[in-house]
Design goal:
Elements: E1 2-7, H1 14-17, H2 20-27, E2 32-37, E3 50-51, E4 61-62, H3 64-75, E5 82-91, H4 94-100, E6 105-110, H5 118-124, E7 127-130, H6 140-151, H7 159-175, E8 187-188, E9 191-192, H8 202-212
Parallel strand pairs: 1-2, 1-6, 5-6, 5-7
Antiparallel strand pairs: 3-4, 8-9
The structure holds adenine.
Adenine is lined by residues 85-87, 130-132, 134-136, 138-139, 142.
């Protein structure tokens, strides 16, 4: 899966995509991530990417030219949908994530300020997605959220040692249920791990876990 991300803050992505499972997924060529600075597409002599809104009002609007040039250039390299992250979009769900994971690629447009020129929304955006009913300062965290949720569903990304998670996590999602987890030490500040989990009796353990599903 190829991800292309358009942002005016490319550095936000640096550390997240260089760690852990997302890092290994790239090393294994299961995902490819390309971060693009929208500013580098600006034809303005000061590389401006925003301007005041027609009709007045607070805040700035991201201008059409850099967005148009960036999106049209990237669409030649990535056959996936162009997704604009905005609190006005359709709310992300695990069902949507599962559909996204089957695509050949995804292009994320991260908005800032009051939003983007409506003509870009009308002509170049395929889907508008929100990650929840709250307002963030930009679409960068939502883009990372979707990239992360989609990547872990691509076969091979979770690896052998974590592959069981794929199953239990999606089942847990469907039922919205999980059992309690414990790790060493068996006694932490006087709080004991339930004896059954240390018994080695897997039938008993399964029964106990089912009885504790929340
Ligand atoms: N941009 C700002 N807030 C957002 C949200 N909740 N979801 C997606 N994009 C956003």
């Amino acid at each position: 899966m190829r991800f292309d991300i358009l942002t005016i803050f490319p550095e936000i992505f640096d550390s997240y995509i260089k760690e852990s499972i997302i890092k290994r997924a790239q090393e294994k060529d299961l995902i490819e991530i390309h971060i693009h600075d929208i500013r580098s597409f600006s034809k303005d002599k000061h590389k401006k990417v925003d301007d005041i809104p027609f009709g007045g009002g607070a805040g700035m609007v991201m201008t059409a030219q850099p967005l148009h040039d960036a999106i049209t250039a990237i669409k030649k390299l990535n056959k996936g949908p162009v997704i604009y992250l905005t609190p006005q979009g359709k709310t992300l769900t695990q069902t949507k994530v599962e559909k996204f994971a089957k695509l050949p690629g995804m292009i994320f447009l991260c908005g800032r300020y009051e939003g983007i020129d409506q003509r870009i929304r009308d002509t170049l955006i395929d889907q508008e997605i929100s990650i929840g009913s709250y307002v963030l300062t930009g679409g960068e965290l939502p883009a990372l959220t979707i990239l992360d949720a989609v990547s872990r569903l691509i076969p091979g990304v979770l690896g052998k040692e974590n592959s069981h998670l794929e199953d239990s996590f999606s089942k847990a999602f469907n039922r919205k249920k999980e059992y309690p987890h414990y790790t060493r030490p068996a006694n932490f500040k006087g709080m004991e791990v339930p004896e059954v989990l240390r018994s080695g009796d897997h039938k008993k353990i399964d029964k106990w876990r089912k009885s504790k599903l929340k």
